[in-house]
Amino acid sequence: MIRDYRHHLHAMNRRERTIELYMYWLDRIRRACGPLEAVTAQSLEVFISAQTGAQTKKSVRTAARSFYAWAHKRGHLPTNPAADLDPVSIPYSIARVAKDYELARVLNRPMSMEARAAVTLARLGCLRLAEITTLRTDHRDGDSIRFEGKGGRERIVYLHPDLDGALRGLQAMQGRGYFFPGRYGGHASTSFVYKLIRETTGYNPHALRHAGATAAYQATGDLRAVQEMLGHSSIATTQRYLHLNDRARRAVAHGTSLRLVA
């Protein structure tokens, strides 16, 4: 049944990263709850509640709803245990931005190649957590990485020299394939990479992505280029990633001076 479902996802032209993520969660559900054919709505809710973070819970729910809706529609299962899973609420909050002086101190300490690559991908590459988790060595193309970003759009991110060095070191150590391989094949879980970055820096990956976006804009003033680097379809989304410091606020205030030239 899983093989048929994978074929269905390919036929629907789903992104490879999405397919791999669904397969990962279905395998985790099977390991935790038993055969997929016997999973109940209650066991799915228990599994989802055991996950860390609202985004991870949302990811599990999405994968389960997609699979079980397909299985029920195709007649593989008499019922759909995921049909009535309630939506996962994602609380809105102003993003915390990682402080550069703290990150510099962290990066000057000894750490595993895996941790250094994950941190620099988030801060210097501004990649999303899911993009870091599923990044492969064959996504590298010279001084850039080329991969399918959110919404199925091709994305090219040029590599900061420190990030390039971190990826080269990690690839030299563990060979080709996923930069963050899973224990049972495929790629590691988003929870694993999230925890790796959080325990290394004290920040979540999104805080590093926001910090990288802010630094890139302050260095270039090119909002359109930053938008492409982040993989946003809307500049309005990119603007929410740019965080003003007090120096910028003071400059804006001083910029309101009267212009006495006719």
Structure description:
This protein is mainly alpha-helical and 262 residues long. The chain folds into two domains: 1-74, DNA polymerase, domain 1; 100-246, hpI Integrase, Chain A, CATH 1.10.443. Helix content is 55%, strand content 5%. The protein contains 13 helices and three strands; from the N terminus they run H-H-H-H-H-H-H-E-E-E-H-H-H-H-H-H. It has a three-stranded antiparallel beta sheet. A hairpin with a 2-residue loop joins strand 1 and strand 2. The longest helix is centred in the N-terminal third of the chain and has 20 residues, at 54-73. The protein is globular and about 75 Å long. The model has no long low-confidence stretch (mean pLDDT 87).
Ordered list of secondary-structure elements with their pairings:
Elements lengths: L1 H10 L4 H18 L7 H9 L4 H20 L26 H8 L5 H11 L5 H5 L6 E2 L2 E5 L5 E5 L2 H14 L15 H12 L3 H16 L2 H8 L4 H5 L6 H9 L8
Antiparallel strand pairs: 1-2, 2-3
From the N-terminal CA to the C-terminal CA, the straight-line distance is 77 Å
Record field, number of beta strands: 3
**Helicity level, as a percent range?**
55-70%
CATH third-level topology of the largest domain: hpI Integrase, Chain A
Domain Core-binding (CB): 1-72
GO molecular function, one term: DNA binding
Domain Tyr recombinase: 92-254
Keywords: DNA recombination, DNA-binding
